[in-house]
Amino acid sequence: MRVLAVFLFAAASAAQEDPLADARARVRALEAEIEAVIAKVAPAVGAITNFAAHFDEKTGKVAVAPQSYGSGLVVTQDGFMLTNVHVVQGAGYLTVALPGGQYPARLHADTSEGAVKGDIALIKLKGEGRFPFVDWRIGDTRHVEPGSFVLALGNPYGYALDGTPMATLGIVSGKGRAAAETGFLYVDAIQTDAEINPGNSGGPLFDIEGRFLGINGLMASRQGRSNSGVGFAIPVDQVRLFMKTLLKEDATGYGFHGIEVDSTPDESGARVVRVYAGSPAEEAEIRPLDVITKVKGDPVRNRTDFVNAMGRLPEKAIVSLTYRRGRNVKTAKFKLASFAEYREQVGIKAPEGPLPLAERGFLGAEWTEERSGVWLARVVPGAAADRAKLLAGDLIVSVEKEPVPTAKALVDYLANIAKGAKVKVAYERDGKRREAVLALSGVAEAAGLGQ
Fold it and tell me: pLDDT tier at 7 (50, 70, 90 boundaries)?
């Protein structure tokens, strides 16, 4: 027994001294941590399918078909999900696949109408009970630096449509980065080499302990639409600046200040090269050639610092600037403007035209056109016409007293009216003229998918 005990002790000591065995144990411990983090957060990560709308103007038929895929993170127990605007824009209908099932969803609010086109969107899942979620109020990016391990979860190439998100592991490559694609501008972003491919957009980035760091959105590639190790995420610190407004379903966007800058040669600040007429900066008496050295007390060395500090703030945020004018140091404090209000103030009109299909209101009926007018051929169950008790065989006479003798006249009139708007429709049934007030249906309802 003594010999056996000595042998076992020697074998254990040898194993402890075996560097390969020790390395394997360390790797396995790291694997176990990563597996635990994924298991913890995956139930709140969803695969989004964006269904585009198709509208046949001759018959009034509305249909939807899958257009693109994306990802999102449920951030409240009642089913609010963060994602990117470019994942859900133009959607006639949205569905979200989670490990617990598949749910219809709708766009609740986004940041696309600001001074820059922001890429934060909030959608609402339709379903009963509590949803698994990751609290948007917890987590920040101050503790992560280049080299910190991060996890990206999502729906690359639509491979997670069964509700099981895919995970990739990488490091933070940089912070305070700026990037742009398809009109969306990212400022003060996290750069990562965790693989982010088409379909990952809108999905979450986590640290190695499962803390929410941001929303993956853009990738840079020279080989087409595939990952080359350069991805960008909107940090959660920035997302939090918009969340309370987004949850209220209020229109919001990134704030407008009206300053263009470049870097000083010695990088001692950001030199003002233009101030827009009527802007908050002009009202605060900022002038060209002023050199901005601080934003809200934080140092500004160059143009990038200025863009990162100012470009991440929502409209109505209060900012303070410290700047040099000649040998004098001055300060200014002002409120960032809504870009829409600024354009209206200076007389810049938004382009006019028919609303996108995803925003239009529909009767929720199909029709046939004859020489005597537009006759309803089918009423979609549960849609606007059905709720107003219109029937197949009714003749549509006018909308809001505007005659609609042809299908084109009916389509052209409704093309400028948003879903949910109430309109008065005059129609004939059995030779008798009648009227009804309809709350126009959105695409999903008009296609027979419910609200």
Answer: very low
Active site residues: 86, 119, 201
Using the predicted structure, report yes or no on whether residue 294 has a pLDDT greater than 50.
yes
1-253 adopts what CATH topology? Answer: Thrombin, subunit H (2.40.10)
Q: Count the neighbouring beta carbons within 10 Å of the beta carbon of residue 354.
A: 12
Distance CA 130, CA 101 (A): 13
Fold of domain 357-446: Pdz3 Domain (2.30.42)
Classified as helix, coil or strand, 371 is coil
As a CATH number, domain 259-345 is 2.30.42.10
- State the DSSP string of 92-158: SEEEEEETTEEEEEEEEEESBTSSS----EEEEE--SSPPP---TTS--STT--TT-EEEEEE-GGG
Reading phi first (left if > 0) and then psi (alpha if -120 to 50, else beta), residue 420 is in left
Over residues 268-292, the mean pLDDT reads: 96
Are the folds of 259-345 and 357-446 the same? yes
